[in-house]
Design goal:
Blueprint (H helix, E strand, L loop, with lengths): L1 H19 L7 H5 L12 E6 L7 E4 L5 E4 L3 E4 L5 H13 L8 E7 L3 E5 L5 E3 L7 H7 L11 E8 L2 E8 L9 E4 L5
Parallel strand pairs: 6-10
Antiparallel strand pairs: 1-2, 1-5, 3-4, 6-7, 8-9, 8-10
Keywords: Signal
Protein name: Sugar ABC transporter substrate-binding protein
Pfam family, one: Poly_export
Length: 187
Amino acid sequence: MKSTASLFHALLAVSLLAGCSSYRPAPAAFHKMLDQPYRLGAGDRVRVTVFEQEGLTNVYSVDQSGYLSIPLVGAVPARGHTAQQLEGEIADKLRQGYLRDPDVSVEIDRYRPIFIMGEVGAAGQYSYVPGLTVQKAIAIAGGFSPRANQESVDITRDINGKVMTGRVATSDPLLPGDTVYVRERLF
């Protein structure tokens, strides 16, 4: 009798450990990114205002290679830059033979989208808004399906050019470009 109980406990322990083998806690960099200034990436759209220059003031999209294409100055690198850094880049390029003292302002017009997959009502691509949490994003995607694990989700995020995946609580904030995967619960 004792050997069957021991065997049962051993099998239970092994099955629990096997279930945890795919667990990937969120790297520390996941939460450090939340305290840093927002960095532009492909898919973002910015409003560039060059004061007293109506022909240059416009909305520009960051292309797949990470550049903005602006009249007179051409391609300006934007990927990985903050809005303030981009202001300086554009002003420097305009000073090189076009304007004496350009006054440039850059603001984010539209963030790159987030993606929601797995056990939700309507998986797909959704617009990012500042302050978006996992729970709010799932609500936008039609809520949890009846089989969804509602305690935590897996997020895939680009951190300094490196794509990482980690498991977070549904109360965690999202960043533009995140992919959220809602897993199926075991029971």
